[in-house]
């Protein structure tokens, strides 16, 4: 499977159009276009878009989507007694050409938070670690020296050099959470691993858990980065870039969960007897 950056861009455009803040800006523009011909309708549409934009730009507004999503998981207690055989840490984004690291790609702040928690779990359990995340090519060379530097490669370097945690498996080919699960499961099953501690942030965990379970792996949830209790005080109602980031991320995950359910329903329908 090869990665086509043009196709990836085309696939991203519809996603960005239906997520905040782009969808809210489009709603405001639509209201302004309607204003001249139907002033009352135009004002209502534009006003709704503006109010929603302000509301979802606050941490308190974002919590409307964040809290129920994070309530689907819970912090892991006593990981050393979970019966897991390995730790799997999922990639997020990465910063390309980081000048302070010799223009090498490095994990972004979300991936780094996952790696830090993965390192914490390793020190508690001493379980072998798998890092998963690629650049979109699921048919990659297993030798890091002969392939394009992938997200998982950057994660492995960070774990080994910054946290002194050894990495046993590197999965460098996945493009998304579903492929994280499928490609990681192949490596894990080959090593006789059936039950894992799955590390990702709390908002992503519900969807990640489903993906790995569908790939035939038993999951012990090990979520990190909970935001549900962070929106407190009057300042939580002030618009901010962080508030919009949380809204964007939470809405994206809700759409992803809905899409997984639709795909599961379609798969079940295809397998059902006539």
Question: Could you explain how this protein is built, in words?
Answer:
51% of the residues lie in helices and 13% in strands. It contains nine helices and seven strands; from the N terminus they run ααααβββαβαβαβαβα. It has 274 residues and is of the alpha/beta class. The protein has two domains: 98 residues, no CATH class; 146 residues, HUPs (Rossmann fold). The strands form two sheets. The chain has a five-stranded parallel beta sheet, sandwiched between helices. Strands 2-3 form a two-stranded antiparallel ribbon. α2 packs antiparallel against α3. The chain is elongated. The protein starts with a helix and ends with a helix. The C terminus is likely disordered.
Write the layout of secondary structure elements.
Layout: H1 5-17, H2 22-35, H3 39-56, H4 59-70, E1 86-90, E2 94-98, E3 104-107, H5 109-125, E4 129-132, H6 151-162, E5 169-171, H7 177-190, E6 195-201, H8 205-214, E7 218-224, H9 241-271
Helix pairs in contact: 2-3, 4-9, 7-8
Count of folded domains: 2
Order of helices and strands: HHHHEEEHEHEHEHEH
Low-confidence stretches: 268-274
In percent terms, what proportion of residues is strand? 5-15%
Question: What does the oligomeric state look like here?
Answer: single chain
- Reported CATH architecture of the largest domain: 3-Layer(aba) Sandwich
The average pLDDT is 90
- CA radius of gyration is 21 Å
Q: Separation of termini?
A: 33 Å
Number of strands: 7
The helicity comes to: 40-55%
Tally of individual helices? 9
User: What overall form do the CA principal axes indicate?
Assistant: elongated
Sheet with most strands: 5 strands, parallel
Q: What would you give as the CATH superfamily of the largest domain?
A: HUPs
Q: Supply the CATH class of the largest domain.
A: Alpha Beta
Topology-level CATH name of the largest domain: Rossmann fold
Strand order of the largest sheet: 5-4-1-6-7
């Amino acid at each position: 499977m090869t990665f086509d950056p043009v196709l990836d861009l085309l696939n991203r455009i519809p996603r960005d159009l239906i997520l905040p803040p782009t969808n809210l800006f489009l709603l405001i523009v639509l209201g302004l276009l309607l204003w001249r011909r139907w002033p009352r309708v135009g004002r209502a549409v534009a006003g709704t878009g503006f109010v929603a934009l302000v509301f979802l730009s606050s941490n308190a507004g974002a919590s409307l989507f964040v809290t129920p999503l994070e309530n689907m998981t819970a912090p892991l207690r006593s990981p050393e007694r979970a019966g897991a055989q390995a730790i799997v840490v999922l990639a997020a984004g990465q910063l390309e050409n980081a000048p302070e690291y010799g223009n090498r790609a490095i994990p972004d702040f979300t991936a780094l938070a996952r790696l830090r928690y993965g390192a914490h779990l390793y020190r508690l359990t001493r379980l072998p670690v798998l890092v998963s995340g690629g650049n979109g090519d699921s048919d990659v060379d297993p030798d890091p020296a002969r392939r394009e530097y992938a997200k998982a490669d950057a994660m492995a370097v960070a774990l080994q050099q910054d946290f002194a945690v050894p990495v046993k498996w590197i999965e460098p080919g996945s493009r998304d959470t579903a492929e994280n699960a499928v490609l990681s499961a192949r490596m894990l099953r080959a090593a006789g691993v059936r039950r894992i501690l799955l590390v990702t942030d709390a908002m992503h965990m519900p969807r990640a858990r489903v993906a790995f379970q569908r790939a035939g792996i038993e999951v012990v949830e090990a979520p990190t980065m909970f935001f549900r209790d962070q929106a407190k005080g009057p300042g939580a109602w002030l618009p901010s870039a962080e508030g919009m980031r949380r809204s964007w991320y939470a809405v994206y995950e809700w759409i992803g969960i809905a899409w997984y359910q639709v795909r599961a329903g379609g798969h079940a329908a295809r397998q059902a007897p006539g």
